[in-house]
Amino acid sequence: MALWGRILPEEVPLNIAVCAKTAPDTATPIRTKADGSGIETAGVKFVVSAYDAFAIEEAVQLKEKGAAAKVHVFSVGDDEAINQLRSGALAVGADDLTVCQDAAAQGADSLGTARVLAAMIKGTADIGLVLLGNKATDFDSSAVPSMLAELLGWPVVTMVTAFSIEGGNFKATRNVGGGVSEVVTGALPAVISADKGLNSPRLAKLPDIVKSKTKPVHKKALADLALTAADLAPLAITSTFAPPPPRPKGRILAGDIDTQVAELVRLLRDEAKVL
Amino acid sequence: MSILVLCEQEGGVFKKTAAELLGLATSLSAGPVAAAVLGGGDAASLGAFGASTAYVVDGDFGAYDGDAVTGALAAIVAAANPTLILAPASYAGRDALPRLAARLGCGLAADCTGLTAAGGAFVAKRPVYAGKALVDVRFAKGPAIVTVRANSFPQPAASGAAASVVSVAFTPAAPRVSVSERLTPSTAVVDLTEADRIVTGGRSLGSKEKFDEVIRPLAAALKATPGASRAAVDAGFAGHGDQVGQTGKVVNPTLYLALGVSGAIQHLAGMRTSKVIVAVNKDAAAPIFEHAAYGIVGDLFEVAPKLQKAIAALD
Ligand SMILES: Cc1cc2nc3c(=O)[nH]c(=O)nc-3n(C[C@H](O)[C@H](O)[C@H](O)COP(=O)(O)OP(=O)(O)OC[C@H]3O[C@@H](n4cnc5c(N)ncnc54)[C@H](O)[C@@H]3O)c2cc1C
Ligand SMILES: Nc1ncnc2c1ncn2[C@@H]1O[C@H](COP(=O)(O)O)[C@@H](O)[C@H]1O
């Protein structure tokens, strides 16, 4: 690595871990299987989960700024996850991808997933920062980042909309609700989950997608991670996938705008009883 | 079975999710219901909504510290030994409850909209795939953690009962994450995820000035929280925290009023469980109308001021 004057000798080279997965394209209609065992995946396009793109982009930007040496991507997922993360992460600047494709890992609940990710991260040298999406756009849990932090014993800041590193410390802005955001600081290593607003993810360029085919993809079996299928047996067991109940058909009001507004207020007060 | 409910408060006043969740826990008739309280507040008053015991960790929980919340809750769980821990799907519910699940080694069902207890087992219902499907979640063992979307359950009527207060000892460590600055909006609003009424503006507002001039006063007249589509946020009309949808807030109000919002699938992802949806759009074919209980086909710049006036005239 090139030595810039501002890199002090006592600074350890920081590597970043990004945890990312694939989820159905947000524009895709979802149909549940007749037996309720899951969703129909035929014809569903899987892409890098929306918030994970923010995590990947942030890691790459930190590397470009010289704040990080390597960006390692970790995923529990299938072959399509490898395909999508090649173009969605390796082609935009991440260095390598490590996946666990074990059936027990892919069938794990949030805590089991966090255990696999924690084991992969612990097995990688000099990780000083873990970036994740704040929720996966499939099960919408917002659980893995905090679980992972707990398992690693590292501090966590979730729903982050601005982030920087200085020396061994970080500064993050988090969205705590009610329009309130907080600027927080802490020492690395830490776990950060990305919210929209953190950055604008770039799209991979075609030559970089071609080059990404030669970037390393490592596969880890559970045994490599000192885990067993029993360690990953789900504690939260999901079943009975069903479509949401249909909404009763609404009505379009008639008349000129004054009439419609008066009618709307009357309906909201007397029929819907919400005013 | 027994249920422990995290009752959140702000400045000593319990949030309405506290009553919602205590009411839910009581309605399950699944054993005693206890409240977990961090910081001040009149913990005994939670008896009015069904808590027989309130476990209280005293201290200053004003500035959010995930380490302290996780640690204090773990101490209360050790004292109360519940089979189910119920918490709101608030910032703490998303940040600290998964940590508690990892610390206790227990299952978590997040952002649920339903919960039943039958034959000694809890079954939580939650939307997945941005509300395009619903699933049931069961738990391999107790305790289990369920976080609940605000406004999913009614506020129970208060009784005259008082909870017996048990103080739980917990000493927080020095925070590893410290708050150096707090940026609050000029006018305090109920968080979108907890709001009972929301007025949302879309791209068609055209500018931040128009958004401020049309959406915010209408929201204020309705005592609603303003929201925005992604197109409006990305154009700078409103902040990221105001965005409703798949990459914004998931909301669950009684009344959702959308002005000049087309109703893209990613927007619906954030608001489809709203009880009454009203759409104002000049295009009668806009997809939002398929989800609206009431629709006005018209120019929002004409409708909004008239609606604001009509609402102001109500009280
Ligand atoms: C991964 C991903 C995530 C996304 N996440 C979100 C999200 O979280 N939230 C979100 O909202 N979107 C999200 N989107 C974007 C979404 O697809 C739409 O682009 C967006 O919701 C459109 O916003 P809009 O309805 O304001 O604008 P438009 O779709 O442009 O609609 C504007 C509407 O205003 C109407 N109109 C125009 N002028 C007037 C007038 N004077 N009076 C009345 N009506 C008028 C038009 O008829 C039109 O229906 C996401 C997209 C992707 C790909
Ligand atoms: N199977 C997985 N592989 C890699 N990262 C994951 C996986 N599941 C969840 N994550 C990460 O955790 C974040 C939050 O996911 P969730 O808690 O499932 O909503 C995601 O945005 C990812 O960054």
Folded structure, characterized:
The complex is a heterodimer of chains A (275) and B (315). In chain A, 27% of the residues lie in helices and 28% in strands. Chain A has 275 residues and is α/β, with parallel strands linked by helices. In chain A, strands 9-8-7-10-6-1-4-5-11 form a nine-stranded mixed beta sheet, sandwiched between helices. Chain A has a two-stranded antiparallel sheet with strand order 2-3. In chain A, helix 4 (110-122) crosses helix 5. Mean pLDDT of chain A is 94; it is low at 1-10. In chain B, strand 16, helix 7 and strand 17 (276-281) form a beta-alpha-beta unit. Chain B has helices spanning 16-27, 66-80, 91-95, 97-104, 208-221, 230-234, 265-271, 300-312; strands at residues 3-6, 9-10, 13-14, 33-38, 53-57, 84-88, 108-112, 114-118, 121-128, 133-139, 144-148, 164-167, 177-183, 197-201, 225-228, 255-259, 276-281, 294-297. Chain B is globular and about 60 Å long. Chain B is of the alpha/beta class and 315 residues long. In chain B, the strands form four sheets. Chain B has a seven-stranded parallel beta sheet with strand order 7-11-6-1-4-5-12, with helices on both faces. Chain B has eight helices and 18 strands. Chain B starts with a strand and ends with a helix. At the A-B interface, helix 4, helix 5, strand 7, strand 8 and strand 9 of A face helix 2, helix 3, helix 4, strand 7 and strand 10 of B. The complex binds flavin-adenine dinucleotide (FAD) and adenosine monophosphate.
User: Over all CA atoms, what is the radius of gyration of chain A?
Assistant: 22 Å
Could you tell me the number of beta strands of chain A? Answer: 13
Please outline the major beta sheet of chain B: 7 strands, parallel
Sheet with most strands: strand arrangement of chain B = 7-11-6-1-4-5-12
As residue ranges, the low-confidence spans of chain A are 1-10
Please give the radius of gyration of chain B in angstroms: 21 Å
Which oligomerization state do the chains in this entry correspond to? heterodimer
User: How many H/I helices of chain A?
Assistant: 7
Give the ordered list of helices and strands of chain A.
Answer: EEEHEHEHHEHEEEEHEEEH
Number of strand elements of chain B: 18
Structural class of chain B: alpha/beta
Q: In percent, how much strand structure appears in the residues of chain B?
A: 25-35%
